[in-house]
Design goal:
Layout: H1 2-12, E1 17-25, E2 28-35, E3 40-41, E4 48-49, E5 52-65, E6 68-79, E7 89-90, H2 104-116, H3 119-126, H4 130-147, E8 155-160, E9 169-175, E10 180-186, H5 190-198, H6 202-207, E11 210-213, H7 217-226, E12 231-234, H8 236-261, H9 272-276, H10 284-296, H11 298-311, H12 319-336, H13 339-356, H14 369-381, H15 388-398
Parallel strand pairs: 2-6, 8-11, 11-12
Antiparallel strand pairs: 1-2, 3-4, 5-6, 6-7, 8-9, 9-10
The structure holds zinc ion.
Length: 400
């Protein structure tokens, strides 16, 4: 018998407990134990007392011992202190959190299961309720998130989140140095951005040096109004994407004009993709067709040449040269008279300073693209996504 008790004590792995007896009933291993010492510090005066006021018994789920569901039965003592004998206090166990019906060891076991599984599966595996499982997961996930080393945040990215059916998050903010998600919030207006950054406190706001973003006025103005030391940096990927959209619009425009002039409604150039592709990546046949059409329609040839020219912008390595290039390119566009590219010129002019800020802070939202996929993935796995809070905790835990 002593051997069994000894063994059980070791298997429990809990300090300060003495096992009294054990039994197995209906496949549940029950362990009755006592604390090795019954004494506690009075919460009012701090002095130690051993005077027992009353005692009751409570059972707690614990880690399975040799694969058998294990329940720990413990006495809950209430002690009284001389300073106020009418108000006894609970003698707490260090391995049980307040108002919990399971040990911390068991909770951590649940937490680890939840990290790798859908909550619903953990519930049926362990035979515990969904709400309890989610609550345990949230507690330890938040503990883990808060315990991460918090270095000073200097460079951040702010980006759109495709709106998910069950979630109202529209905007995500990332720490671009640690590649972790700082927060998600609702809305994408200037007021939303301001409200969010204001909630982060003055010290945090003052520490931000640069913010990667697309050419969105609401993000930009929100940042300028709340982050006193931050430079907006236009994301290069977005700049390139916007340019390509304008080139594509120009092609459509030219094509429509040709259709009218030649009275041929079916006329297509067949170069939509080859016009936008990197020239080096073109197949021989695509190249042949592209040159043929560009020869035939000089406006399109100009459009193609300007597109190729602008690609050089992304290889420039000094701010001075980049600024000179923008002026040079704008002139080329003006000479071409292509309205869609002239509209791009105005964009370049409007965002010029923030496009050039890239040379002070070489940041982009590119690295966070992966997060958007991760977030989608979490959504797909349906990890407790019925509730925004649960979803956010899961995303923060995994996006780091
Ligand atoms: Zn006292």
């Amino acid at each position: 018998m002593n051997n069994v008790v000894d063994f059980t004590e070791k298997m429990l792995g809990l300090q300060g407990l003495k096992v009294i007896h054990t039994y197995v009933n209906n496949g549940i291993f029950t362990v009755c134990a006592m604390p090795t010492a019954v004494s506690g510090a009075c919460p009012k005066c701090g002095s130690t007392t051993e005077t027992i006021h009353d005692v009751r018994v409570q059972d707690y789920m614990h880690l399975p011992i040799w694969g058998t569901k294990t329940v720990l039965v413990l006495p809950i003592f209430r002690l009284e202190c001389k300073c106020d004998p009418d108000h006894p206090f609970d003698l707490r166990y260090s391995f049980i959190r307040k108002y919990q019906r399971q040990t911390v060891h068991y909770e951590k076991h649940i937490y680890n299961l939840c990290k790798q599984n859908v909550i619903k599966n953990v519930c049926s595996l362990e035979g515990i309720s969904y709400v309890k499982c989610q609550r345990i997961f949230n507690h330890y996930a938040q503990e883990e998130i808060y315990s991460r080393p918090s270095n000073k945040v200097r460079l951040i990215g702010i980006d759109d989140l495709a709106r998910k059916k069950d979630h109202n998050y529209n905007t995500a903010v990332y720490d671009l140095e640690t590649h972790s998600l700082i927060a998600m919030f609702k809305g994408r207006t200037k007021e939303d951005v301001i409200a969010f950054f204001k909630s982060l406190g003055e010290e945090f706001r003052g520490g931000i040096e640069a913010v990667a973003m697309d050419m969105s006025r609401s993000y930009c103005n929100g940042v300028l109004e709340t982050l006193p030391n931050a430079k907006p940096v236009i994301d290069r990927f977005h700049l390139s994407q916007l340019f390509h959209n304008q080139v594509d619009d120009a092609r459509k425009h030219i094509q429509n004009k040709v259709r009218k002039e030649e009275d041929n409604k079916q006329k297509v150039f067949g170069i939509r993709w080859s016009l936008l592709k990197n020239f080096e990546d073109l197949e021989a046949e695509e190249m042949r067709q592209l040159f043929k059409v560009c020869d035939e329609y000089p406006k399109l040839g100009q459009c193609f040449a300007l597109k190729e020219e602008f690609h050089k912008f992304f290889d420039i390595d000094t701010k001075e040269n980049a600024a000179a290039f923008i002026e040079y390119f704008k002139e080329l566009v003006e000479e071409s008279g292509i309205p869609e590219l002239q509209s791009f010129n105005r964009t370049l002019e409007r965002w010029r300073e923030y496009i050039l800020n890239f040379y002070d802070y070489k940041i982009s939202n590119g690295p966070t693209e992966g997060f958007n996929n991760k977030i989608k993935n979490i959504k797909r796995r349906a990890y407790g996504y019925r509730n925004d809070k649960n979803f956010e905790i899961r995303v923060k835990l995994e996006c780091a």
